[in-house]
Amino acid sequence: MTALNFAITDEGIFLATDTLVSRDGRPLMFTAKVLTLPHMHGLVSGTGSMVLFQRWSLKIVSEILAAHMHVLDLCTPSRLRKIWAEMSDEERGGGPADIYHLCYDPDDDQFGGFAYRSSNDFESEPLGHGTYPEPGLGGAFPITAFPGDLVRACRRLRFEQDRLDLDKRQHIGGQVIAYMMQRHEADGQPMSTLTTVQTAYEFEDFEAAYGECDERTLFDGCK
């Protein structure tokens, strides 16, 4: 589904994803792969199945009442299992899928998160401080400059995936979108968060991939 690289630190959450969606090994469309939840100080993303991420995002914003991501965590495993069970093999993408909740806890003044993996029956797995590369860089990578280091991680993932056979490849491309969530203080207000989003990089074959997407989609702009 995506190149997803993020770091959880005491200073905040730093995340980058690509925008390419592929089907049958070819570019299909570009989309955002992160749901921002400012009212819960949270971000939601995932790998492996765009359908699972989209259906879970829709359920969060349309059906679930939760004051914080820790509250959302209580019902997430059972809800994800239900969505997964209702999905076809094609919608699952032929492999495992992960959902990530990244958040700030104002009660503890801590950044953290949760992982829910189909390979672990979507059990809740707490995430502490550290770096988390997907689909796997073979080791941690340093985050000393944002968004540059995350862009380099996404480019490295793209290079490594391009070396694999087509049927084993995670297709990465389009643009790299970088997200940063940090503490935000305002006079007379409790501690909150400020999330910024930027287009940090455009892959060299963006124009060619866009043209192929246009040929495969039924709707282009407002024509």
Distance between the termini: 28 Å
pLDDT averaged over residues: 88
Would you tell me the structural class of the helices and strands?
alpha+beta
Q: Rg, please?
A: 17 Å
Tell me the number of helical segments per DSSP (H or I, 4 or more residues long).
5
Number of strands: 12
Note the beta-strand portion: 25-35%
Question: Approximately how much helix is present in the residues?
Answer: 25-40%
Using the alpha-carbon principal axes, give the shape.
Answer: globular
Largest sheet: 5 strands, antiparallel
Quaternary status: single chain
Instruction: Please give the order of strands in the largest beta sheet.
Output: 10-1-2-11-12
Question: Unreliable stretches, pLDDT < 50, 5 or more residues?
Answer: none
Give the SSE string. Answer: EEEEEEHHHEEEEHEEH
What does this protein structure show overall?
With 223 residues, the chain is an alpha+beta fold. The protein has 5 helices and 12 strands. The protein has helices at 50-63, 69-86, 89-92, 148-162, 206-216; strands spanning 4-8, 13-18, 20-23, 26-30, 35-37, 42-47, 98-105, 110-117, 124-127, 130-134, 175-184, 192-202. The strands form 3 sheets. Strands 10-1-2-11-12 form a 5-stranded antiparallel sheet, covered by helices on one side. A 5-stranded antiparallel sheet has the order 5-6-7-8-9. A two-stranded antiparallel ribbon has the order 3-4. A hairpin with a 4-residue loop joins strand 7 and strand 8 (110-117). It is globular. The two termini are 28 Å apart. The mean pLDDT is 88.
